[in-house]
Amino acid sequence: MSFSTDSPRDPETDVSSEFPFDLKFVSVEDAQMAYPPFKNNCLFLHGNPTSSYSWRNIIPHVSEQVRCVAPDLVGMGASSKPSISYRFAEHAQYLGGFIDQVIPEGKLILVIQDWGSALGFDWAFRHQDRVAGLVFMEFIRPFPTWDDAAHSKAQETFRAFRDEPTGRKLIIEQNAFINVMLDRGLVRKLTAEEKAFYAKPYEKEPLFRWPNEIPIEGHPPDVYERASNYHEWLLETQVPKLFFWAVPGRIVSAEKAQWYLDHLKNVKGVFVGKGMHFLQEDHPHRIGTEMSSWLNNL
Predict the structure, then answer these.
(1) pTM, whole model, 2 decimals?
(2) How confident is the model over 146-167, as a mean pLDDT?
(3) Whose CA is closest to 139, among 8, 17, 267?
(4) Are 148 and 257 in contact (CB under 8 A)?
(5) Can you tell me the distance from the alpha carbon of 104 to that of 17, in angstroms, rounded to the nearest whole number?
(6) Residue 92 phi, psi (nearest 5)
(7) Sequence-distant (≥ 6) Cβ neighbours of residue 11 within 8 angstroms
(8) Could you tell me the domains of the chain?
(9) What is the DSSP secondary structure assignment for residue 266, as one 8-state letter?
(10) How crowded is residue 262: how many other Cβ atoms within 10 Å of its Cβ?
């Protein structure tokens, strides 16, 4: 499969900042996890440093076709901030508990990005009989080298994040993920209302822990092993897939997108245009309409 980037689309301009949903809460272990109770089994999983808010313009495109559930990961958004280390395994445990309570049976379509992709792929690998489809973009995989994980300037930033004292100063004290990294992951500029929504609910510890969990060059070993397992499964499974990508992208370049289009089975690739990391904010309506069409053909 091949693609063209001759006429990349600009970010969409009609992106709403409104989040007109009342949150529901479910008790998972020692925490309360928040999610909007959409009426219609599609599970939307966000990444760092966002929340279910990032799906607000996409869900309305498909909510008449499927039941949509979009939780805030534990420690993030409106969910509780328990006193835990926020390592990948703990997030996976809380997510599993959430799914067991809110969607205890039936098939799931996972719509995933960033750390939501790692958690979603990991859950799918361990519950293969429940997976009806995968929709993903800017996804986390095992990175065999730093060069595969990020370009040189980003490497410098993320190496700093993974140094305990420096990372805590940048992320905890200076709030670098909200104040800097969020903007760097977008082409368009967030409105003041959007930026405030992302910033207000945050406990900093999960924001610090996530960059330290990225599976690069075998570290951390437990996360690298889990990512390797789900990545191997992803390349072999016939589960229907919808893969969105953009240029230049952050962790999925055009070259890497082509590699996955050539190696994944039963995949439809959609080039959305100009984008960095948070494609849900730059191209939500394209993602929503393409997803709706794909759902009709499942």
Answers:
(1) 0.87
(2) 94
(3) 267
(4) no
(5) 32
(6) -65, -35
(7) 186, 187, 188, 273, 274, 275, 282, 283
(8) 24-296 (3.40.50.1820)
(9) S
(10) 11
Dihedrals φ, ψ of 47, to 5°? -120, -150
Alpha helix segments (H runs only) across the chain: 59-62, 88-102, 115-126, 146-149, 152-161, 164-168, 176, 182-184, 192-199, 204-213, 221-236, 254-263, 279-282, 284-296
Q: 278 with 189: CB under 8 angstroms?
A: no
Q: What is the DSSP string of 183-202?
A: HHT-SSPPPHHHHHHHHTT-
- Provide the pairing of β-strand 131-139 with 241-248: parallel
Q: Smallest Cα–Cα separation from 73: which of 125, 18, 134, 123? A: 123
To 5 degrees, how large is the angle CA 252–CA 173–CA 49? Answer: 30
Residues 6+ apart with CB under 8 A from 74: 28, 31, 33, 80, 82, 84, 86, 90, 91, 94, 95, 206
Q: Are residues 261 and 136 in contact, defined by beta-carbon separation less than 8 angstroms?
A: no
Least confident of 37-41, 65-69, 107-111, 236-240: 37-41
Convert the pLDDT of each residue in 188-236 to its tens digit: 999 999 999 998 867 899 999 999 999 999 999 999 999 999 999 999 9
Burial of 145 (0-12, 13-18, 19+ CB in 10 A): exposed
Question: How far apart (Å, rounded) are the C-alpha atoms in residues 76 and 32?
Answer: 11
Tokens matching residue 22: 């009342």
On whether the CB atoms of residues 87 and 209 are closer than 8 A, the answer is yes
* Nearest CA-CA partner of 11 in 291, 290, 289, 287: 287
- Residue 29: exposure state from Cβ atoms within 10 A (0-12, 13-18, ≥19): middle
Q: List the catalytic residues.
A: 114, 138, 277
Q: Which pLDDT belongs to residue 7?
A: 55
Q: Cα 58 to the chain's mean position, in Å? A: 13
DSSP-derived pairing of the beta strands 24-28 and 31-35: antiparallel
* Residues shown for the chain: 298
Give CA–CA dist 252/205, Å, rounded: 26
